[in-house]
Fold each of these.
Amino acid sequence: MIKRRISRVVKIGDVLIGGGNPVVVQSMVKCPTEDIEEVLRQLKVAKELGAKVMRIAVPDKQAAEALKKIIPYSPLPLVADIHFDYKLALMAIEAKVSALRINPGNILDSNQENLTRYDKLEQVVKAAKNSNIPIRIGVNSGSLHPKYLEKYGYPTYEALVESAIEEVQILEKMGFYDIKISVKSSNVEDMISAYMLLASKVPYPLHLGVTESGSGISGYVKSSIGIGTLLYHGIGDTIRVSLTSSIEEEIKLGYEILKALGYEKRGVELISCPTCGRLEVNLFDLVDKVKKEIENVQENITVAVMGCVVNGPGEARKADIAVVGGKGKGIIYRKGKMVKVAQENQIIEAFKEVLNQVIEEKKQEEIKV
Amino acid sequence: MIKRRISRVVKIGDVLIGGGNPVVVQSMVKCPTEDIEEVLRQLKVAKELGAKVMRIAVPDKQAAEALKKIIPYSPLPLVADIHFDYKLALMAIEAKVSALRINPGNILDSNQENLTRYDKLEQVVKAAKNSNIPIRIGVNSGSLHPKYLEKYGYPTYEALVESAIEEVQILEKMGFYDIKISVKSSNVEDMISAYMLLASKVPYPLHLGVTESGSGISGYVKSSIGIGTLLYHGIGDTIRVSLTSSIEEEIKLGYEILKALGYEKRGVELISCPTCGRLEVNLFDLVDKVKKEIENVQENITVAVMGCVVNGPGEARKADIAVVGGKGKGIIYRKGKMVKVAQENQIIEAFKEVLNQVIEEKKQEEIKV
């Protein structure tokens, strides 16, 4: 069993993050914030798919104004994503956002107003404290504060961590501890190393993500390795998969990562063999049919579909239901016990029967609990 | 930079595995071994996609006979996958296979011949030594030797490692050290823990894989986390992604995992942002077009495609070429230096021009090296 790093807890709306609470899947609205109707549609979809928190960009005053109209109708707590302009953070707090994300790299001293970044942060921190909302310090390899780029020449993992910790210390000096941190990099190795180093240095909850991981297979792989490696080591309190793709795909992938490491049990886990020269049934077809039967099952059930007798009986022992292909027929196991033998064209019917029994049983168990 | 675990080296055909050599991507033939024409077609495809070694099932005498006809024409060295029957291993060696995989869990004592599994292994080891080929000890959660199942009640990661080490010791006692090991589990956490423990206990090269990882997103995620976490820690000398899917997909995913951690540089690495309310151009469309331009480029180039000015300039600094979207136009950077500004409908043309310059330059560099 994975031993989790136990951090302090922050609260975003009603959602607890850190302190050993379930890892929260989040995503980010992918349309202009002023397009209120589309924003609310995306938030609804996100909630249905299991996101517990959503982030939304506030790049200008129009967006900050739109927040006021969005928040009363939002089905999920919102985190306002602020860059460059601290005044937008103040506006977002006024609009009753549930949390802020600020990027220390790009809130800089300004000559016009004669304000240092310290002055600006102080105003934001005071407002956040009054409204009782947390701040995520969101350091990012693509927008590291210039002074660290100068010092390290490159956004190394040490640079990301040093920048985050400097910001934490500024907030702590202001008496603000309601902090969550991220140190994202588009380089997976740097990302993992940065979070590992950070986890050993601060007591705050961590928001994990590989930034700019792109689209397609490579985005899946980068996010899975980056977030997954940290979760294996018990590090991470909330995760956001960043893909050049839909929020649906981001949230779905987030849950797959959690499921792969046993952080989350939602629906059926399907184990199936890669097929080889030992194959004795049409496994691809069988797996497709089994998938169709299980896709809407909400109960936590393990199903194994195996093509031969080498690893089949072993996986069968571990699964709630297993279908093991033999020559022209299928054997159905239930918790390792053989319960049915069916001809190849009747395997799926036999599977459905056993599946329904198992679902009923799981439902009974839940009622008892 | 990842510090690799340096193991002993084994040689499969001409391919070196272990000792800090490049991590080898392998896959497994997915049709009956007797279907010689289809086997050879799959081997050809595998080689074209970059697999360096292929495994092939030898479940019966027909398959072992077919090996004799396959091996003289195989474009890649073959590993014969043997279960239950040690005689098939002897036949595969006679057919001049380049390596063996035996599963200690299912070569058992037999009453018929009055042979212990030790007697059987001895015959196989002698033949392997005479032919100068390595043996992979392939322990698998689905087919663990019954005595460990009895002891641990379940294929825990300690059980997998204990079974592997017992087998190693048997081979070592016979004076055989040409060993590669795998301890695959369908449970990602167990798989990672098993290899980590094993890596600390033996000097042999390790073959990584998550077994029975299924199909679709969940297969991608499990393999990426399992193999990726170990590679992040420098563990692993050859990898095999197991998907209920084509060998094409297995090999492609294998390379994506290696690329994500800098083990392999093949073609273009594309970094692109997840899009948000800050987006100022049609990024999905732009990324698709850029992908089309780069898909056949063999040179090792980093391309960033970013939708706005928050992380865009930072990623641009690190990339060989970056396209950063502004309001209705695109800025092209080359190694962080702005080189072109184009209207939105001309961005892709401007990108192609810069891409061709960079490819030419990389080619010149390669000639110099």
Note: Residues 10-260 of chain A form a domain with the TIM Barrel fold (CATH 3.20.20.20).
Amino acid sequence: MQILKNPAKETWNELLKRPMQDPEQIRESVTTILDDVRKNGDFAIRKYTRALDGADLEDFRVSPATMQKAEEELDDALKDAIKRSASNIRKFHEAQNGGDISVDVQAGLRCWQKAVPMDRIGIYIPGGSAPLFSSVMMMAVPARVAGCKDIVLVTPPDENGEVHPAILYAAARSGVDRIYRIGGAQAVAALAYGTQTIPQVDKIFGPGNQFVTLAKQMVSLEGVAIDLPAGPSEVLVVADKNTPPRFIAADLLSQAEHGPDSQVILIADDEQLIDRAKRAVEQMMQQLPKQEIIGRSLESSKLIFLTDQRQIMDMVNYYAPEHLILATENADELAGEVRNAGSVFIGNYTPESLGDYSSGTNHVLPTNGAAKAYSGVNLDSFRKRITFQKADRKALEDIGSATMEMAKAEGLEAHRKAVEVRLNDQNASL
Amino acid sequence: MQILKNPAKETWNELLKRPMQDPEQIRESVTTILDDVRKNGDFAIRKYTRALDGADLEDFRVSPATMQKAEEELDDALKDAIKRSASNIRKFHEAQNGGDISVDVQAGLRCWQKAVPMDRIGIYIPGGSAPLFSSVMMMAVPARVAGCKDIVLVTPPDENGEVHPAILYAAARSGVDRIYRIGGAQAVAALAYGTQTIPQVDKIFGPGNQFVTLAKQMVSLEGVAIDLPAGPSEVLVVADKNTPPRFIAADLLSQAEHGPDSQVILIADDEQLIDRAKRAVEQMMQQLPKQEIIGRSLESSKLIFLTDQRQIMDMVNYYAPEHLILATENADELAGEVRNAGSVFIGNYTPESLGDYSSGTNHVLPTNGAAKAYSGVNLDSFRKRITFQKADRKALEDIGSATMEMAKAEGLEAHRKAVEVRLNDQNASL
């Protein structure tokens, strides 16, 4: 952990730089897989699932019997936790419903905007022994609230062709319509192009390894919508002399345990607090598994002392963190000054992990500074806004002259004529 | 114009296929330009502006004196038309304001979502003798309504280093903060990376040629947000026996005059109407400039007769048109069944050109089927939604157990500990 004291503004860019991602080495294999699946559909999927996941599957879809078994197998405490968290996620995303608007911009001319759910969306969930079933809920629950008709989940099988029961249970609780046991770039290709058995979707969501991330990027250039540009996870904690160092340490370590390239930053206006937080991290780290990952992440972590109060929020907004924890006494006030962040955690009793699982906000958030322009996943990630307009003859007579004038100036004569023929016609019905 | 009668559903995919874009040939030159601008800033910009636009500029920025001159030069009728249209655009986008939500998901745990404007956005406007000043308004007016602090416009200069006065006037009326006389991939690079004189922006908007489009795509992979995937413009008209054929013809031709790859489709349940519309197009075309462009676009246009009423809206939603004109007697009813479209024009007095300029809706819309997952440009294109949460100790005691249970199951011990240390601490203040 590197301690920095009142770094000059000119150094912020270098200081807060994220690691560069270079997907070039794997571009060729991802291109090959995408092409193969587009041309050969299920045949290619089966081949890659055998080669990469070690499972030879005749049918990728998870059966109702398997779903049933997962529910029976899973620990009751975990099932209960999933249910309670899903309920909060549902509440917060339901509150985002509505928002349709309608305006008479002038007499006889109404314009409106309507949120319409996407028909079919796809969710990618990585596999492994500790799978991210919480991400299932973060995408499927809002998709269901938005009104998507078909929610498709893909996740790689283990060598026995099986999927972790927590993923299956979370999917069932969240309203997923069907689950396919496929992963990697081949799963992204299946969702993007469709195969004989796997349907093409309108938008692809979800985290994944570099193959999945690059595949999502590549199909997005072909017009398939994707959720967010992906990068390593990040937390920035703002603290003061009253913040308990153990709280800070646990929050920084929560981020560091995600991976060696996780970004961990603390900003405080108290030098002693920074030293105490550093010691608390070193101590608490000893009690944790994943020490190697944590160690590597902490190597590039920054503990920044800033005297100037205004500079603190300037730096926060400059960095645009995925997760922002405001644990100072004036946290509520600082919250009002946040311009760039994914999700904000306020006060001493709102650890980031609460939002990762249970508070109700979404944990799929913009990383790598994307919070300057991107929202995290929310209800509107599963809907599009369609605009409508309807003019009557009188309104067209009124505003139509402006349209004709502008069309003429842009050299678009048929555009002008589309107004003129209507105004010249005395017989058309409304 | 190809007439098709009751095409079978299995043929829709082939029938409604859009032309493929292949940017591969220009990828190398765009890559070179992007790299050059990133490394050499203004020096590279000046070089490309000299080579590609034929203007050698020492200062790219448009001066206040030039802005003043543009206002004086421009025709009063056009200025008035711009003002009236901008006013409608402002009204409709102002109505999209608000939408912040706050929920107590449980006692002591509040979650909220706030729309926050992007700090600085960039708008690209192509040059030429009939420049798209209407697009200036479509992006700058909502950016201003959203509250962006700095609205930067770039547009290529002519050989004399000048910009069309209509662009300058529309920019001034719409609240653009500064204008730079640069274009092409080099302008996109300037906005994406920043140079000595041109500031880096959070998101890049606007239409352009294939170099601009590819440059936007490429910088988007580096994390710079862009507005929409770009493709040729499209209109789909739904008509019945009562729709005046001249109205249909003018609307189809409005689309066709945009470019040789514009997509023009008519669907109707009346064979005679289709024949009459076809004749009206052929007749009206004779009175128009740009006949070669129109002719090439119409070559691939489709006039589709569908008997089955339900199939009409199925085909509309399958195609997901950028512009949808519903000019049937039951247009209001059909409007309720639209699931995929950019913007919808209802009735006989709402030509597409009204929305292109003056109705108030945005004309930057998803093409190429992207309307299945993308909205057109709207107020939220210039804002992001940030989520916040705040729990008190009691709420954390309640829901924290669910968080700890799930963190444990995902193998994230520090996440679990971040709740535990707080519940174990008796002394921390709120």
Note: The longest helix of chain B spans residues 24-53.
